[in-house]
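Module 6 notes. Inverse folding takes a fixed backbone as the condition and produces residue identities as the prediction. Think of it as a translation problem where the source language is geometry and the target language is the twenty amino acids. Below is one complete input and output pair. Work through it position by position during the lab.
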């Protein structure tokens, strides 16, 4: 049984994975086993592994939980259970390939220095003619250390983990809370160092990793530097005394000032660019420190980072603990730090509203185009949109240009109840137990339990009231929502004119663990084509047709095997969705089916804010062909 295991987390990069496995074959043949943690749950991952590693022991394990931390932890768990004699776990990412002698060099460094962690070089291949800014950016850094002992490591691409340190540290080894925002590797390395582990580096063990062109724009490079340092500040405060972290931040100012002066005096543009990246990183570290220490949102620019937006969506989609006695019992980073004081919320919201009003639709269109490029690694042709995802972004851009308030009766969750009653009849809209603008006015004593507190302008802003809650903590949480508006952060202009309200409705319990399950009807010009099943945890996501036959595609990294039974009133649900969608060229009508009763949840015009990763990709084209846009229709 091999004592070396190669672990590869992968996510929707079949060609990259194939290239990596081909480079691994001569390195590991007869010496190591391979475990692939498929965080994208693709149907072709096993076929790729079988074809490229036919004579090498290998496993492919699906990891439905979103986040690279979950994939890395699954690799370690599987190595322990399936290859109990392993001594080294070498981790690689699916966007690179190894060079000859890679495994020998890593093992030699580990044995020579008796290391618990080994790091190797990541040769980030840039474009043929990189600009001066790119050449002096962090993306151009390759080998920060000579071979030997080191105080820290750079990242989890191309590392070796020794079995003894895994046995000494409690699971989970990689923090799941950092799985979608990064720095999970930095957190793990810090834990190893504080535990007394030995870190070593091999300058000869090289992995080649091409950098996508979309990541090399000056704006994207600065965003990545800012975001990485913001999260690193949270990690530092997790393990070190705040005074020490503050002292470390302050010590960077003199060094930064000397570099600025030296680059100006010597007229050294390269040094000045490197100093600019250092200053951006320092600003991110300060922002992270402030967020973690006082919960303030002074630097909102980081939320334009695609990885940070992903984290926001993931965390806000997760249910808050139902039995939390106070807001402090909600785990840190689950609601993006504690809520700031109310006056800061009001000031922050006013500033954001004014900034967007001044910026106007041109700013929104530029940001949306950049967001599309970051998601799909290509430019958006607004005038010739063909794919479903392209048409979603086209719709957002047109909404920003027009600022049409005709959407309000459909997207305001309170006003929608009147539209539902007028269109499909009474009884399909959930009753409202209470509504108001002030959380202090919530009548906790008279509310029937359980029920749900929600906000009209927040994605994921809900809290289950089951009788065990602390009213004061709930009021504080609701006040915190007033400073959070994911729709504003995502430049969804059609949400801007919705009156900001709080309301309470009955809690729906359909008996499912992820309940209530949502039945999302994709409706094109009044005709239902696909029905998506969505759970409260967001990890179901399978699709059916109108006959309740499973469709052969998924979106994002969803792969959980869950097949709820066909609703008895499926025909009535389809009829309701088609009547509500009759006036729209595309709308997703979200319904619930509880105790043999149908409820309308909402009407969604931009599913997932345009970020849908179709697997297989051909379904993006199929749904795009069904969407026949009609001028003048919403």
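Target side of the pair, the amino acids:
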């Amino acid at each position: 049984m091999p004592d070396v295991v190669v672990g590869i987390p992968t996510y929707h990069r079949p060609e990259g994975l194939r290239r990596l496995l081909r480079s691994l074959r001569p390195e590991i043949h007869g010496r190591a086993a391979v475990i692939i943690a498929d965080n994208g749950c693709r149907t072709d991952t096993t076929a790729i592994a079988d074809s490229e590693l036919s004579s090498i022991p290998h496993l492919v394990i699906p990891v439905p939980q979103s986040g690279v931390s979950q994939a890395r932890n699954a690799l370690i768990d599987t190595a322990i259970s399936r290859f109990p004699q392993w001594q080294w776990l070498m981790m690689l990412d699916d966007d690179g390939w190894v060079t000859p002698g890679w495994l020998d060099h890593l093992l030699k460094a580990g044995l020579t220095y008796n290391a618990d962690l080994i790091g190797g070089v990541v040769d980030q291949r840039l474009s043929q003619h990189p600009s001066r800014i790119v050449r002096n950016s962090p993306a151009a850094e390759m080998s920060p250390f000579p071979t030997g002992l080191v105080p820290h490591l750079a990242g989890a691409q191309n590392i070796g983990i020794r079995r003894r340190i895994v046995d000494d540290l409690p699971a989970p080894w990689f923090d799941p809370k950092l799985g979608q925002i990064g720095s999970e590797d930095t957190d793990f390395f810090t834990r190893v160092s504080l535990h007394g582990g030995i870190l070593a580096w091999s300058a000869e063990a090289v992995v080649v990793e091409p950098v996508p062109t979309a990541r090399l724009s000056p704006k994207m490079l600065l965003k990545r530097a800012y975001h990485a340092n913001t999260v690193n500040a949270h990690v530092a405060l997790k393990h070190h005394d705040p005074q020490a972290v503050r002292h470390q931040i302050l010590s960077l100012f003199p060094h930064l000032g000397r570099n600025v002066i030296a680059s100006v005096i010597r007229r050294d543009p390269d040094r000045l660019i490197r100093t600019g990246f250092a200053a951006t990183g320092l600003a991110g570290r300060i922002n992270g420190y402030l967020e973690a220490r006082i919960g303030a949102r002074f630097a909102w620019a980081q939320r334009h980072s695609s990885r940070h937006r992903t984290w926001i969506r993931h965390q806000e989609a997760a249910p808050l603990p139902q039995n939390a006695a106070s807001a402090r019992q909600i785990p840190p980073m689950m609601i993006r730090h504690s809520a700031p004081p109310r006056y800061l919320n009001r000031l922050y919201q006013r500033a954001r509203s004014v900034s967007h009003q001044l910026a106007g639709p041109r700013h929104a269109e530029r940001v949306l185009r950049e967001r599309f490029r970051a998601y799909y690694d290509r430019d958006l042709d607004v005038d010739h949109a063909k794919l479903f995802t392209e048409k979603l972004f086209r719709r957002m851009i047109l909404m920003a240009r027009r600022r049409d308030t005709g959407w309000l009766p459909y997207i305001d969750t309170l006003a929608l109840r009147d539209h539902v009653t007028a269109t499909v009849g009474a009884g399909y809209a959930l009753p409202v137990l209470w509504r108001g603008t002030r959380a202090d006015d919530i009548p906790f004593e008279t509310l029937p339990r359980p029920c749900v507190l929600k906000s009209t302008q927040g994605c994921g802003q809900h809290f289950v009231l089951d009788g065990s809650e602390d009213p004061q903590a709930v009021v504080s949480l609701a006040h915190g929502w007033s400073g959070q508006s994911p729709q504003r952060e995502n430049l969804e202009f059609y949400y801007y004119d919705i009156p900001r309200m709080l309301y309470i409705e009955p809690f729906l319990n359909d008996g499912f663990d992820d309940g209530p399950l949502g039945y999302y009807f994709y409706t094109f010009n009044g005709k239902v084509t696909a029905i998506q099943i969505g759970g409260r945890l967001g990890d179901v996501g399978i699709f059916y047709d109108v006959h309740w036959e499973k469709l052969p595609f998924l979106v994002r990294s969803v792969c959980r095997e869950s097949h709820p039974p066909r609703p008895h009133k499926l025909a009535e649900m389809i009829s309701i969705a088609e009547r509500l969608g009759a006036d729209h060229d595309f709308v997703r009508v979200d319904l619930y089916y509880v105790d043999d009763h149908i409820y309308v949840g909402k009407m969604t015009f931009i599913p997932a804010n345009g970020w849908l990763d179709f697997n297989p990709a051909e379904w993006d084209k199929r749904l795009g062909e069904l969407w026949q846009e009609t001028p003048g229709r919403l």
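Reference fact for the lab report: The mean pLDDT is 80.
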